[in-house]
Design brief:
Layout: E1 7-10, H1 16-25, E2 27-30, H2 39-45, E3 51-54, H3 62-68, E4 74-77, H4 87-92, E5 96-98, H5 105-120, H6 123-131, E6 152-156, H7 160-173, E7 176-180, H8 186-192, E8 195-196, H9 199-205, E9 208-211, H10 225-230, E10 236-239, H11 248-257, E11 262-265, E12 285-287, H12 296-314
Parallel strand pairs: 1-2, 1-3, 3-4, 4-5, 6-7, 6-9, 7-8, 9-10, 10-11, 11-12
Bound molecules: glyoxylic acid.
Glyoxylic acid binds next to loops.
Length: 326
């Protein structure tokens, strides 16, 4: 461009807290439709761009990097997770990749916490019951859910969000905390008395299993029929990380057959689920539309970091939150 400003494509409107600066400092094209750009449109829009600000709904792979061209310097993901991006491919090409951690930790842990309690105490099922006109009187034997105090929480993936969830359950309900993680987390052990265990032990012992792991080839489908069968019949499964961590048809069967008591999901596979996905018919499955980070400060914070990452990457500087730094 004659004025020297870089060209960027922003794949959806994000909060002004970040977008305004991107617009000021770049020739920015912003996709302002409510749905993501279709693949062929995305490939065409990124052509000649120096930077792309992408969402978790955009697949950023070699094809997209080829379509953009060799001047592409930075991909800034408006998310903490980056399973939508082929990181080795970006690294090979010297393209910097940024993400938006920390600012959504509390909001996402709050979501996990609210799904856990909603599923355990049958809150949404109760609301459906009222709306269907079935509530006739106070029922001594009706709507019985699971206790929360002094139970066992199993965290799978003890990163920032897993830790924040464990703090809530330990501090609020004095839960015993087990965790399964690639590496030992001394802070969790010291602060919360958490114990690192193998997955099978966690599944067998936990009253609540909350998943906070990255989605990768090792973790994909880790919550399958065999895993659900290892859990307590009274257990509640919570997934606020990525849908493909669970096998959705196996989860349906486990909930339907009473292998586990209930589930609370902020993520599904696919997203959104098909309208005729049988999971949507189950009273013991609470589902939210992937809104873990949907609070004012989280989304503004994500927009600020995503803008910083984009602008820094365009200048060839270290990103604020840099996924492929090495
Ligand atoms: C949301 O799922 C994120 O990764 O930020």
């Amino acid at each position: 461009m004659a004025d020297g400003k870089p060209r960027v494509f922003v794949t959806r409107e994000i909060p002004a807290a970040g977008l305004d600066r991107v617009r000021q400092e770049c020739h920015a094209e912003v996709w302002s439709e409510p749905l993501p750009p279709p693949r062929e449109v995305l490939l065409q829009k990124v052509r000649g761009c120096d930077g792309v600000l992408a969402l978790l709904t955009d697949k950023v792979d070699a094809e997209l990097m080829d379509a953009a061209g060799p001047q592409l310097k930075v991909i800034s993901n408006f998310a903490v997770g980056y399973n939508n991006i082929d990181i080795p491919e970006a690294t090979k090409r010297g393209i910097r990749v940024g993400n938006t951690p920390d600012v959504l930790t509390d909001a996402t842990a709050d979501m996990a916490f609210s799904l856990l309690i909603s599923a355990a105490r049958r809150v949404v099922e109760g609301q459906d019951y009222i709306r269907a006109g079935k509530w006739k009187t106070w029922e001594p034997l009706g709507h019985i859910g699971q206790d929360l105090c002094e139970r066992t929480l199993g965290i799978v993936g003890m990163g920032r969000i897993g830790m924040a969830m464990a703090r809530r359950c330990r501090g609020g309900w004095n839960m015993r905390v087990l965790y399964h993680n690639r590496s030992r987390k001394e802070q969790a052990e010291q602060e919360l008395g958490a114990r690192r265990v193998e997955l099978d032990e966690l599944l067998a012992e936990s009253d609540f299993v909350s998943v906070h792991a990255d989605l990768n080839d090792t973790t994909r489908g880790m919550f399958n029929a065999a895993a659900f069968r290892k859990m307590k019949k009274t257990a509640v499964f919570v997934n606020t990380a990525r849908g493909p961590l669970h096998v959705q048809s196996d989860l349906y069967t486990a909930l339907k057959n009473g292998d586990i008591f209930a589930a609370g999901l902020d993520v599904t596979d696919p997203e959104p689920p098909a309208q005729d996905d049988p999971l949507l018919t189950l009273p013991n499955c609470v589902i939210a539309p992937h809104i873990g980070s949907a609070t004012v400060s989280s989304r503004n914070g994500m927009a600020e970091i995503a803008a910083d990452n984009l602008l820094l990457g365009l200048q060839g500087k270290p990103l604020r939150c840099w996924v492929n730094r090495q």
